[in-house]
Amino acid sequence: MRTLLRGGRVVDPATGFDGTADVLVDGGRVVAVGPGLPEAGDQIAIDVAGYLVGPGFVDLHSHVHSIAGHRLQAMDGVTTALDLEAGMMPVGRAYAEAASTGRPLHYGFSASWGSARAKVLAGVEPDANFATALSVLGDPAWQRSSSKRELASWLSLLEDELAAGALGVGVLLGYAPASDPAEFLALARLAKRAGAPTYTHVRELVEVDPDTPVDGSEEIAIAAAETGAAMHHCHVNSTSGHHIDRVLAALEAARSAGSRVTVEAYPYGAGCTAVGAFFLAPERLRMNGLDPTRVVLLETGERIADEARLRQVRSETPGAPCLLESLDEQDPGERALLHRSLAFPDSIVASDAMPVYWPDGTSDSTRWPLPPSGVTHPRTAGTFSKALRLMVRETGTWTWLEAFRRCSYLPARVLDEVAPAARAKGRLDVGADADIVVLDPATITDTASYFDPTRPSIGVRHLFVSGTPVVRDGRLLTDAFPGRPLRGEPR
Hints:
Layout: E1 2-12, E2 17-26, E3 29-34, E4 43-47, E5 52-55, E6 57-59, H1 67-74, E7 78-88, H2 91-101, E8 106-112, H3 113-122, H4 130-135, H5 148-163, E9 169-171, H6 181-194, E10 198-200, H7 216-227, E11 231-233, H8 236-240, H9 244-256, E12 261-265, E13 270-274, H10 282-287, E14 295-297, H11 307-316, E15 321-325, H12 332-343, E16 348-349, H13 379-394, H14 400-414, E17 436-439, E18 460-465, E19 468-472, E20 475-476
Parallel strand pairs: 1-4, 1-5, 6-7, 7-8, 8-9, 9-10, 10-11, 11-12, 12-16
Antiparallel strand pairs: 1-2, 2-3, 5-17, 13-15, 14-15, 17-18, 18-19, 19-20
Helix pairs in contact: 3-5, 5-6, 6-7, 7-9
């Protein structure tokens, strides 16, 4: 069925168009954009006057591999949710499992550097399960440097994953920060040959650990310059903390020199990971100027009281998800640091959305509204709406055109080389994929909090994925599963 979106304020970051127009969708594509498009009997016409109509948001950094998580992200304006920082292995199994149950949103995965290293260095067989990956993050067996034979072995595994459709390589370098920098350069060379980006959670900064083998953010610039690979810096806000200005200046210098470096941020002061992560050891927290009370266990709400308790939970349940309060959003100075990470030129909005859990052990739900007491990070439900609230509605830092550029157009462009199908995403001109969000510019906002993290955002009036409605009149459609895989096509 053809759909005509009538009379909205159409925003297309690909062409720079921002004005009143109609949008006609047919067969999963945008087939016409312009004023006064004729209505026909084979069309569904929807009046969207007073609303913004733009390309659906492309999230490069989402760890939700479930219907429940996708639905929360749909209400936040997302049409494509990709797990690229951590990745999944085997990637073929990840794609098959998503297809078998169906997804409301488009999905895709990078090859997992961490899983490849864990298999070769620690004998941990990957199962394309994010919970399994969390449980081994704190295992020192895979965090060490590789022998030449081991390096060749896990690089070969990643090469196979790229051939199987991975969208690049996800690199959790911050979880193995003492590993040899030469390994990262070898990986960058592999990525360059394959025409595939890397997506890196960088190792620690030199200000935090003077003994680090190389400064985390400088390493991205060095590898991009030496190899020509496209290198994406994940969640610069959380890995840079109080040193954000120095890191952003270094990244800008690298980009100005011609390096292919892109950067993302999310609008929250607290991150989320497994409590056994390397950088959550008490001595590492102290190096960051933090203490154990900044760590909160997600499933129980327990705020860690002291170092003894932190060591205990890290030993007993290293895979337990937790919050880490790295920036205090109530402090004006720290809030300004967070703002600058989002305001940085060409900074991409990405959520780092986390899985949703319930106290009874359920890790997914097909119920909607979601059952009460769900546990996750509020960025799962609110990243894009919060970014729009902060950066457009409240501060005017971005225009609406700029907001769509950062939430839709720029993230899709990161994928153009590895996944030619992405070239039709992040835009709203003729021939574009009909992945469309219609939002109310006066009301769009997040409602999820750290203590009530599964409350959906408000203000997304309609959401179309491949032309199929997933949200209609602000209500989620529970029978909609139009999501399709976005796969890599390496050279």
